Description:
By secondary structure, the chain is mostly beta strands. The strands form 9 sheets. Strands 2, 4, 5, 8, 9 and 39 form a 6-stranded antiparallel β-sheet that branches. Strands 3, 34, 35, 36, 37 and 38 form a 6-stranded antiparallel β-sheet that branches. The protein has a 6-stranded mixed β-sheet with strand order 18-19-22-23-28-27, with no helix packed on it.
Amino acid sequence: xxxxVSTGRGKExxxxxxxxxxxxxxxxxxxxEAEISGSIPEWLSGVFFRNGxxxxxxxxYPVNASIDGFALLNKFEISRGTVRYSSRFMQSKAYxxxxxxxxxxxxxxxxxxxxxxxxNIFQRFLADFTTENTDNCNVNFVKLDEDYFALTxxxxxxxxxxxxxxxxxTVDMANYxxxxxxxxxxxxxEDGDIFSMGSSYGRKTFYNIIKIPKSNEADGYLMGAxxxxxxxxxxxxxxxxxxxxxxxxxxxxxxEQSVTLNVPKILVSKLFGWDxxxxxxxxxxxxxxxxxxxxxxxxxxxRIYETDPMMCLHHINAYEEDNHIVVDAxxxxxxxxxxxxxxRDMRNGGAVTKSxxxxxxxxxxxxxxxxxxxxxxxxxxxxxxxxxxRNDGTVRCNPEVLCDIKSEMPRINYDAFNGKKYxxxxxxxxxxxxxxxxxxxxxTQKLWSDHDCFVSEPIFVPRPDSLDEDEGVVLCxxxxxREGERSYLVILDGKTFEELARAxxxxxxxxxxxxxxxxx
Length: 520
């Protein structure tokens, strides 16, 4: 069963609107009042804080990859039925230095820094190998103690003030643990510890699980950070790319997927002026591997779980049940989405991709060693996911499709249900104009859409003292790129998925990537 109101766009119209979607935005540093229609719940009070690229060129130099756009912090302040909107470009060193030089001075995912015309060839050559990690943290946020830090996949974290949209400090994960990258999707432990991941490249490449203990500002935000587990890459020359990972009560689950990084090519890309994103590819012959790690001591379980070649950007949730680990994620069967690194391709409508919400069930040793059949190890009811034991001792996992509608940018009631058995997630739907609520038990969906607009990542905000998992609201920034039209914040009922209110904004609003809600 699917509840939907949706219409499609013609190809030419889609390309025109997409091109505008990836135009650079104007910042709105002075808050503006939104025009409210409908009724905002009285209990909803706080800041919907979002992050994402907002400027795609410096002077005459455009970025090559959409993800390399400069971070534009933006927020919706919700209080007593009113909404105020403001935005400001993150004053990172990468942004400030580029503005001053009127060129791109830091390398990005798909963009090389523009050489300084005042330097000779030898100086430019040396500069290519001394350019530091970017602090253009334009992907997500993490809360460390009572402060908020913007994240990307470099090792830099930028402390930002949600009230004034100011940059207050920058810290470097690489100063505390031996990593070259850092995930933009950390997890929060029950006791206040934070867990992240980062890769370390060398003769041997490792995917590292990082533990950041709860501390205080006086001790330094990352003081005490340590590597809990070092997962060896199957290939050090072609390690897996990853964007997120899963965490349950007792385990981490990392997917070494079929998207690989060509390390030798990355190392010489700067020398020959190659687009760094050309070093990322999909290996259709490389099985994806699910690695299970104990949270208690960081030990890697020896059992190897495999599935068909795939790519995953975002995990939905994971939990344990009756000696099984259930892992839900948005998965691609190929690497077509990698073409969407290109800003030019995105402005032309983007590659046609389809990520499906899939459920993998990993039987643990108590099941594997006592099962009467090696062909069907999964004993949980209510799922068509299967797992079978191969002769070489590996477990082959065949996932269940939770929803036959394309799903991306998934969010759950995180604080109450991350790492636990859950029922609902919210995500962007089958086209760029649709968001949906998925019931993973009944395999049904509720959809909301505005076919004239583009939707962003939906955020679930639980009602205070709520009893039900979906008791609350869903916030989503809706971008209208039509001439003369305005973007807005939509507020949906978390249960019925009906529209409660919308706040129309007289300002540029970027499509963005991820966000958080800071409850007053």
